[in-house]
Design a protein that fits this description.
Blueprint: H1 18-21, H2 43-59, H3 64-70, H4 76-85, H5 103-116, H6 118-138, H7 141-152, E1 158-161, E2 177-181, E3 184-195, E4 202-209, E5 212-219, E6 225-226, E7 241-251, H8 264-298, E8 300-301, E9 304-305, H9 310-339, H10 344-368, H11 380-392, H12 397-409
Parallel strand pairs: 1-4
Antiparallel strand pairs: 2-3, 3-7, 4-5, 6-7, 8-9
The structure holds 3-thiaglutaryl-CoA and flavin-adenine dinucleotide (FAD).
Pfam families: Acyl-CoA_dh_1, Acyl-CoA_dh_M, Acyl-CoA_dh_N
Protein name: Acyl-CoA dehydrogenase family protein
InterPro entries: Acyl-CoA_Oxase/DH_mid-dom, Acyl-CoA_Oxase/DH_mid-dom_sf, AcylCo_DH-like_C, AcylCo_DH/oxidase_C, AcylCoA_DH/ox_N, AcylCoA_DH/ox_N_sf, AcylCoA_DH/oxidase_NM_dom_sf, Glutaryl-CoA_DH_mitochondrial
Length: about 425
């Protein structure tokens, strides 16, 4: 609604201080930012967001439906280098060519990338928040210097192998083993559903050792390592997903990440990737909301735009509520991460809420578009099917419910 049509403000009580009335004019209502959340951003935040938004609009949006239909991400290496050039890889990390951005800025980048496609945000999440974060936080100086600059530039792609065929939600039971042979380590096992696996130059692999779970930095040209790609996915089709096969992979003593001992190592990396998803999911939701709003204003049935029907308006209003509440939540968590107060349970809160709401928004948008909702000519079904993966990876809905349940009650329900 133009500002000139906005209803008059309620009369101020006569006792209201003069400054209340003089607090500036109300901006026009913006259907794309109904709460004025843009005001929470600094000029630098907006610049980061706009750079990533432009890149995604130019380099992903025109092609992504084709990639999705083909079930391939043919330009992945080129895209990785471009993402490196705009500072999107390992964005909140410092040194080694990383951008040293704030958590909020990283979140905004995830939102813009996932507004294009969850597969692109996945590429960035796994590279930056999982593989690079593990090296940055737990690696030796030599490991950081060897890998991080080329990963920040997108010249080397990384992957993160935690999940196994028989151990997904419960990684504590993993069977991949690392044993000592002289001073070397020898790794045997299999990892499953690994994003970036078959295009990675380096894999961070988690394995059982006599001292508990440890992380290993595995150059993917090491004999005994292979990463067959997983096909026939109906979700995350514009993303590379692979198995990792470790068959007597011999590594030098210094391949272990010295700073990580126990399951807390990989789980703390997950906090960062899950945080990115809290924002990213709202990008997919925003794209679907915008598609539905545009369609509702154009499409006519019974002689009028479907956006004029109350039932369509109720859908749009509810979608807008959850979309912008989700962005507000993401921003709040980002500020906590920036000040160092963000707890893992709060990340679970955000991941659980925002992915669940995003999928609901996409499904509702699908109904607004009628039959066109299932067409790849619109982004809606692609986002909705992508979000089925996002709902599962980085901890399923049930895992995050149980994390919150445990925090609320003090009772651990994971094992019955
Ligand atoms: P539990 O006994 O609770 O904890 C073991 C140790 O870990 C510590 N810990 C954490 N530390 C940091 N952050 C967290 N979020 C942590 N959660 C637990 C904990 O304090 C303990 O430390 P210590 O020192 O006492 O040993 O572990 P549990 O076996 O009961 O499991 C807990 C549970 C179920 C929450 C955890 O296993 C879990 O999160 N499961 C879900 C697995 C998962 O999310 N996998 C994701 C794989 S990576 C991926 O999906 C990438 S997709 C990315 C993309 O493409 O975008
Ligand atoms: P399971 O753990 O077998 O769970 C099956 C169902 O049982 C779920 O609904 C689950 O919530 C439920 N369940 C399990 N335990 C309980 C319980 N105690 N109480 C109630 N319900 C329970 N992993 C990586 O390590 N690296 C990656 O890069 C990566 N990328 C991925 C990319 C894609 C496209 C996908 C789909 C997955 C990826 N994953 C990756 C794996 C992902 O993290 C796992 O799929 C996820 O953790 C769930 O594990 P699972 O699929 O084995 O399901």
């Amino acid at each position: 609604m133009p500002a000139s049509e906005a209803p008059e403000p309620e009369a101020q009580p006569s006792s209201a201080p003069a400054s209340t009335a003089a607090r500036g004019s109300r901006p026009a209502f913006d259907p794309y930012d109904p709460l004025g959340l843009d005001d929470l951003l600094s000029a630098e935040d907006r610049a980061v967001r706009d750079t990533v938004r432009r890149w995604a609009r130019d380099r992903v949006l025109p092609y992504v439906a084709e990639w999705y239909e083909a079930g391939r991400l043919p330009a992945i290496r080129e895209l990785a280098r471009e993402l490196g050039a705009i500072g999107a890889l390992g964005m909140p990390l410092t040194g080694y060519g990383c951008a040293g951005a704030s958590a909020v800025q990283y979140g905004l980048a995830c939102l813009e990338l996932e507004a294009a496609d969850s597969g692109i945000r996945s590429l960035v999440s796994v590279q930056g928040s999982l593989a690079m974060y593990a090296l940055h936080r737990y690696g030796s100086q030599e490991q950081r210097e060897q890998w991080l600059p080329s990963m920040a530039a997108g010249e080397v792609i990384g992957c993160f192998g935690l999940t196994e065929p028989d151990h997904g939600s419960d990684p504590a039971g993993m069977r991949t083993r690392a044993r000592r042979d002289g001073s070397d380590w020898v790794l045997d096992g299999r990892k499953m559903w690994i994003t970036n696996g078959s295009v990675a130059g380096v894999a961070v692999v988690w394995a059982q050792t006599p001292d508990g779970v440890r992380g290993f930095v595995v150059p993917t040209d090491t004999p005994g390592f292979s990463a067959p790609e997983i096909h026939h996915k109906w979700s995350l089709r514009a993303s590379v997903t692979s198995e990792l096969v470790l068959d007597g992979v011999r590594l030098p003593a210094d391949a272990v990440l010295p700073g990580a001992a126990g399951l807390g190592g990989p789980l703390s990396c997950l906090n960062h990737a899950r945080y990115g998803i809290v924002w990213g999911a709202m990008g997919a939701a925003r794209s679907c909301f915008e598609a539905a709003l545009g369609y509702a204003k154009e499409r006519e049935q019974f002689g009028r735009p479907i956006g004029g029907f109350q039932l369509t308006q109720a859908k749009l209003a509810d979608m807008a509520l959850e979309l912008h509440k989700g962005i507000l939540l993401a921003h709040h968590l980002g500020r906590r991460m920036d000040e160092g107060t963000l707890r893992p349970e709060q990340v679970s809160f955000g991941k659980l809420n925002n992915v669940r709401e995003a999928i609901d928004i996409c499904r509702t948008a699908r109904t607004v578009l009628g039959a066109n909702g299932i067409s790849l000519e619109y982004p809606v079904m692609r986002h909705a099917t992508n979000l089925e993966s996002v709902l599962t990876y980085e901890g399923t809905v049930e895992m995050h419910q149980l994390v919150l349940g445990k925090a609320l009650t003090g009772l651990d329900a994971f094992r019955g």
